[in-house]
Amino acid sequence: MTDTTTVVLDTIMSRKSVRNYTGEPVTKACLLALLKAGMAAPSARNRQPLAFVAVTERNILNALGEGLPFTKMLFKAGACIVVCGDSSVELQAGATDLWHQDAAAATENILLAAEAMRLGAVWSALFPMSEREDHVRKLLKLPAGVDPFSIIPVGHPAGGDLPKDKFKGEKIHWEVW
Amino acid sequence: MTDTTTVVLDTIMSRKSVRNYTGEPVTKACLLALLKAGMAAPSARNRQPLAFVAVTERNILNALGEGLPFTKMLFKAGACIVVCGDSSVELQAGATDLWHQDAAAATENILLAAEAMRLGAVWSALFPMSEREDHVRKLLKLPAGVDPFSIIPVGHPAGGDLPKDKFKGEKIHWEVW
Predict the structure, then answer these.
(1) Domain B21-156 has CATH 3.90.1720.10
(2) Is 3.40.1190.10 the CATH classification of the domain at A22-158?
(3) Is the pTM of this model over 0.95?
């Protein structure tokens, strides 16, 4: 294995859900790097049906957290990224059933990029919980046809959030089940 | 940025859908590394509701390809990985609506690991196309409650498959839409 291989595989294995942050801000340059990683994810038929809202303002982060029961870490996060599907793209593609998969891939890319940048991030699901979606849609003024999929709080890790070893050999089947 | 940051972000940006392979086999050790990367992906409530079938036998790869109109690259691939949801785990979790997101994250991890290992891979969707799912389910003898999500042909790149620059600044909205 080359160094590149080792470094990337190590990052994949080290990625963790980071829910505790120092409170330090996250720069727009960092967020832009995360967003570039998100946009580099594959999409069905390469339709790229996603859009992103990046939030750094304290009052918006707090307001988001107030309406999301499982995303209270926004109160301490320096920023968040909301991954959205944009149906104006999606409908043109006719791939209406696949944009959630594209959005999940983009979310994972953002998490891995954050890990590589020594930032902490965590995937918090919005879709398909309509109450959570509506809260985010309203606060972020999402237009009709734009649907929030996930919200990713981002911050500088306070420490203590550790990766889990999730490898289970019995989940692998060779050739056939 | 550290070297690690650069290497990982470069890999994320370089990942591409590789559909052309040399025909060389892919070792089980390589497949195991890919599967470890897949299992390291996050899952809703950490329920880890996935299972994987790794195929290297030529006749099975060909038979899979024959019934999948958009996955003919299996005829030249050295192997493939089928990412599945295992509802025996899922139902315990009560997170029945989220396993597709977990499976998409695992699929993306496998694609990134392949890129880092200088292998070529491509995400081919099975879910929610029931004819594709049924073809794979039957050939791989998936038990009831195990649902195929994606099939990832893997091979040694023949060259010619290039990454796309998908960055579009207009897809980013700051603070609110």
Answers:
(1) no
(2) no
(3) yes
Residues in B closer than 8 angstroms to A113, CB to CB, are 8-9, 12
Q: What angle do CA B72, A170, B101 make, to 5 degrees?
A: 60
ipTM score above 0.90: yes
Domain spans, chain A: 22-158
DSSP chain B: --HHHHHHHHHHHH------B------HHHHHHHHHHHHTS--GGG---EEEEEE--HHHHHHHHHT-TT-GGGGT-SEEEEEEEEHHHHHHHT-TTTHHHHHHHHHHHHHHHHHHTT-EE--EE-TT-HHHHHHHHHHTTPPTTEEEEEEEEEE-B-S---------GGGEEES--
User: Measured between alpha carbons, how far is A57 from A60 in angstroms, rounded to an integer?
Assistant: 6
Across the range A83-107, mean pLDDT stands at: 84
Q: Is A8 in Cβ contact with B113 (below 8 Å)?
A: yes
Over pLDDT 90: what percentage of chain B?
92
Chain A positions touching B58 (Cβ under 8 A) are: none
Residue A140 has pLDDT above 80, yes or no: yes
Give A159 to chain B, closest Cα distance, Å. 19
Parts of chain B with a pLDDT under 70: 1, 90-96
Q: Residues of A with CB below 8 A from B42's CB?
A: 15, 17, 108, 111, 123
Q: How many CB pairs under 8 A join A and B?
A: 212
